[in-house]
Amino acid sequence: MILIADSGSTHTTWALVDRDSSDVLYCETPGINPYYQDEDEIVAVLSDEFSMDINQVRKIYFYGAGCANPEKCALVGRALMRFFGICEIDVQSDLMAAARALLGRGSGIAAILGTGSNSCYYDGHKIVSNVPPLGFILGDEGSGAVLGRTLVGDILKKQVPEHICSRFFERYQLSAADILERVYRHPFPNRFLAGFTHFIADNIEEEAMSDLVRKAFAAFFVRNIALYPEATGLPVNFVGSVAYEFRELLKEAAAITGFGVGQIMRSPVAGLIRYHL
């Protein structure tokens, strides 16, 4: 038995896989991100939320947001070892999860559009080049957090039609002060902002909303994908809830900026199971 985890900033999907029968059991816990949580906090999340029997598990493959350098990977690895009591743990980035799920052992461009965003050129074995995403304050173009940040900023500065502003405040019952408190003083502001993509999706027939998404995706291509020389001749493949939810607008933005789109997956988990089996 192996345990595969795909962890974003919002939630973690765990897949318990029987190598002999290919049977799979799933559970979800809140997201794990070593940039926002220390070792004790990760163990606490798992203690509260993890629900599967893993007595037969021999190895854990953990793919996570924030697991982009050896120090952060080691932190997550120690937390997982404490909770599961299993020594054989392989911690990789969520970007490696995207690459392996989308491309297997082939080469190409893999990208993430979820709560955050990221991209790389993958040669079938390793990530060869990566434009740094920089997080939702400095980068993360096209991500749920940036879509939500843009929406909230536009609403508070009255840059969208009044009826959209009214719908927003009626739905969420938040004041400007509430929003500022959540963004600047509470943990996981990226999760909070990304939650507003549901409002965008529910109002996507409004020109202001479709334009917001299209422009954010165009910025993702221009500020990230355009920096990979290989992208001029290869389709860009995506995983993530934002990419999947707004896939038609994603294709439009790609065409506007001169790129092509390949696969679009909501989650990399099925592709990771195929890869490891």
From TrEMBL:
InterPro entries: ATPase_NBD, Euk-type_GlcNAc_Kinase. CDD domains: ASKHA_NBD_PG1100-like. It comes from the Bacteria. This is ATPase.
